[in-house]
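Sample A.
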Amino acid sequence: MAHIDKELLMTKARNIRLVALDVDGVLTDGSIIYTSQGEQVQSFHVHDGLGLKLLGLAEIRVAIISSRSSRALTIRAEELGIKLIYQGLPDKIQVYEEIKEKLGITDKEFAYIGDDWVDLPLLRKAGLAIVVANAAQSMKDYADYVTQKPGGRGAVREACELILKSQNRRSEFLNFYLNN
């Protein structure tokens, strides 16, 4: 699956009802920092958070699927109102199938944002496969879209806006903020 033309990309994005994403390298910059007490510290970009909230306002569900577990991620997901959060599960494809069944959606209605080899099974099944700019180079061959921004630095927001634009919702939300 190489990069697709813009018209096909927008058609695929128009079908999306759920966006699932990896965390390390996608929602964060991929750095794993530990304090001297052994606590993990993660950094999340505010632009990505607003993008995910806008998806919720557009009635597009959001899921987080991470093979690692993090208390910081749990807190951030709660702040953003994300209810579908799966952590510490190495078999991401099983989670993918559970989400589809639970929500009654098809592959074509599922977007996935990833950055590395562990994300390949989901990228290959999802109707819209997105990788971040700083993804492993080999991953870009499996993406419908490669963000211009890196993971943890606005890539998720860029993907959210692409989907909102394809569904003619981006201007609606932008206008809301312009008129307040």
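Sample B.
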Amino acid sequence: MVENNNNGDKSPEEMVTLDEKGQFLEQTVPGLLSSYEIEIGRSSDTLALIIDPKDLLGIFNILKHDSQTYFDFLVCISVVDYIEYIQIVYHLLSTTKQHKLVVKADLDAGQPSISSLTSLWLGADWYEREGHDLFGVWFEGHPNLEPLLLYEGFEGHPGLKSYPLPEYKEW
């Protein structure tokens, strides 16, 4: 039996329910970041922001140091190749406030470049080096973007969808 959920015209994103901490962030973050142009949405059960890459350091400085958010832990940085653009996805956690946030920034696929977060979180180092190796993202201000996964002199960026895969034959 299929139930009618009576959700009308709501998108799947709008049907996601945030917990109390997520709802707090949904009310608080827009005020904290009012001087920046941001887009607010939801990613699974987590509040998600889409920001302009040029605002990255200013926004993350506020999110890390403001007493209402205090995102003291950078959980992960992911890179996604959408062919037309490269998206950087940051997962943040406040270990004291016990809330989480996702922040996304879209980069030009031809020359993907964004500020490094190593000045705010030392843990950004290896994530950014991995993003540089596999996707060719240039993290401006990173202290050492030497290869992490690939050998020195490796040609190309194998995380990109445009990277040619070698022909594989079964025996």
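B remarks: The beta strands are 38-43, 46-51, 73-81, 85-94, 99-108, 113-115, 138-140. Residues 20-32 form the longest helix (13 residues).
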